[in-house]
Specification:
The structure holds 2 protein chains of 2 kinds. Chain A is of the alpha/beta class. Chain A contains 13 helices and 12 strands. In chain A, the strands form 3 sheets. A 7-stranded mixed sheet of chain A has the order 2-8-7-6-5-3-4, sandwiched between helices. Chain B is α+β, with helices and mostly antiparallel strands. In chain B, strands 1-2-3 form a 3-stranded antiparallel sheet. The chains are: A alpha/beta, B alpha+beta.
Chain lengths: 395, 130
């Protein structure tokens, strides 16, 4: 059976070049970068080379990069660390309603610690209005965090415009760029942000490694206390193989980005155009144009996402869904609800995230196998039966 | 894949008794507004037995497997026997359901029960004649 992995937002495969770069550090080059001997030097040099590679990917200075254990850690570090470092100045934090859970839940923790949150709405495409950011700012606002792009609906946010506002008001601006760094151009100077999160497993690097870029001069409180690794801002012996892999993945992403984007955009549009032409009552979620190159997200009416996902899996196709049934908490995706999709329609969520190895044949295979799956589930669906009866009765 | 038993997967992939009964003797609908699962059961009664049971379900893999299993368990049973089908007995027949799905997607027994109640109340309204 054909195997088609279209769940790259969950994680990307490791590129062979990245794996090759990592292997020595799982073997003979095992030293601790903090050690003052040749073994330590070799490890330290590898970490610093990776730091330079990651810095180049986002147009930053190497000494401003802090390696972390994941995108989630980067976001926790940013939200809690930036707020705590400035709590004498104020205790108000602004974020969008569609942030990743690692941002939202970190902010909830801040709330328990006495901070106040403002959650900004998004429009039907998932776009934050910069005017809302301006209106939300108060004297005691110490942090704004708006994601660069949303991995579930693909929408890219107007980060530059928001950064202009936060800079005028002298408020620290963090952006979660986990969905974009290594995928589309991310330049911290162009974006104008102060702090930025990224993660290795979103662009063909290893899992268990991320980075936080903190502009020089911005104060952040460490989450982990201990030794003086990462300039004293993230204690703990470094995960050298993963950091080396992240560096290599960053280098490859930078050098091949334009070709990757062109490839992904073509395939994405094939799916975005193809699916609604083959299946009735399908809604594309997210922004029609201004979206991640590999993101094709839909809601299919009258059926539920987990059933679709399971039947697609039985045909060899891997996807995600934001339906309530697919979440462990049995709650519909907060992103879909924030863009104004009803709970019922959100049940039909299905998310395809394409990768650099995806092919036109993969897309055509999905376009071939999905319509009968949708049809089969609709034949089973009381909602569809109701809809058919009502539309017949109306005529 | 969600952590489903082989039995759940088997019923999900090959659900029994999907459909509607045009001239059903009883219809029962049960839904969970929180997670959005919805099940409709149709029954045909002959000599106090469930002569035919069909269902339509909107929901996850567990919801579809539960509906299929309930229809299979209920078919041929007397009304009294069928009313004894519980979410627990359905889950047992399916060799277990994930914890978080037990309450949310396990609505088949209630939907069937509603269909039987629907039949009984219609019968009563007709004055016990069938």
């Amino acid at each position: 059976m054909r195997k088609v992995y279209l769940d790259h937002a969950s994680t990307t495969p490791l590129l062979p070049e990245v794996r090759e770069a990592m292997i020595p550090f799982l073997g003979e080059t095992f030293g601790n970068p903090s050690s003052l001997h040749d073994w330590g030097d070799a490890a330290r040099e590898a970490v610093e080379a990776a730091r330079a590679q990651v810095a180049q990917l986002i147009g930053a200075n190497a000494e401003e990069i802090i390696f972390t254990g994941s995108g989630t850690e980067s976001n926790n570090f940013a939200i809690k660390g930036l707020a705590l470092a400035q709590q004498n100045k104020g205790r108000h934090v602004v974020l969008s309603a569609i942030e990743h859970f690692s941002v939202l839940q970190s902010a909830r923790t801040l709330e328990k610690w006495g901070f106040e949150l403002s959650l900004l709405p998004v429009d039907k495409y998932g776009v934050v209005d910069p005017k809302d950011v301006r209106k939300s700012l108060r004297k005691d606002t110490v942090l704004v965090s708006i994601m660069h792009a949303n991995g579930e609906v693909g929408t890219i946010e107007p980060i530059q415009e928001i950064a202009r506002i936060t800079r005028e008001s002298n408020v620290v601006f963090h952006t979660d760029a986990v969905a974009t760094a290594g995928t589309i151009p991310v330049d911290v100077k162009e974006l104008g942000v102060d702090v930025l999160s990224l993660a290795g497993n979103q662009f063909y690097g290893p899992k268990g490694v991320g980075a936080l870029w903190v502009r020089k001069g911005v104060r952040i409180m460490p989450l982990l206390d201990g030794g003086v690794q990462e300039g004293g801002r993230r204690a703990g012996t470094e995960n050298i193989p993963a950091i080396v892999g992240l560096g290599k993945a960053a280098e490859l992403a930078k050098s091949t980005m334009a070709a990757r984007i062109e490839h992904l955009t073509q395939l994405r549009d094939r799916l975005l155009d193809g699916l609604p032409s083959r299946i009735d009552h399908v809604v594309v979620t997210g922004h029609p144009q201004n979206r991640l190159p590999g993101n094709a997200s839909f809601c299919v009416e009258f059926i539920e996402g987990e059933s679709m996902l399971m039947l697609l899996n039985s045909q060899g196709v891997a996807v995600s869904s934001g339906s309530a049934c697919t979440s462990r908490a049995l709650k519909a995706s907060h992103v879909l609800i924030a863009v104004g999709i009803s709970h019922e329609l959100a049940q039909g969520s299905i998310l395809f995230t394409l990768g650099i190895d995806s092919t036109p044949e993969d897309i055509d295979y999905v376009l071939e196998v999905l319509p009968p799956i949708v049809d089969r589930l609709r034949q089973m669906s009381p909602l569809y039966a109701k809809f058919i009866k009502e539309s017949k009765g109306g005529k | 894949m969600p952590v489903y038993s082989e039995k759940v997967m088997e019923h999900f992939m090959n659900p029994r008794n999907v459909g509607e009964i045009e001239d059903a003797d009883g219809v029962g609908e049960e839904g969970n507004p929180v997670c959005g699962d919805m099940m409709t059961f149709y029954i045909k009664v002959k000599d106090n037995r469930l002569d035919d049971v069909k269902f339509k379900t909107f929901g996850c893999g567990a919801a579809i497997a539960v509906s299929s299993m309930v229809s299979e368990m209920a078919k041929g049973k007397t009304l009294e026997e069928a009313m004894k089908i519980t979410p627990r007995s359905v889950a047992n027949e399916l060799e277990g359901l994930p914890k978080n799905k037990f309450h949310c997607s396990n609505l088949g027994a209630q939907a069937l029960n509603k269909a039987i109640q629907d039949y009984l109340s219609k019968k009563k309204a007709k004055g016990g004649k069938e």
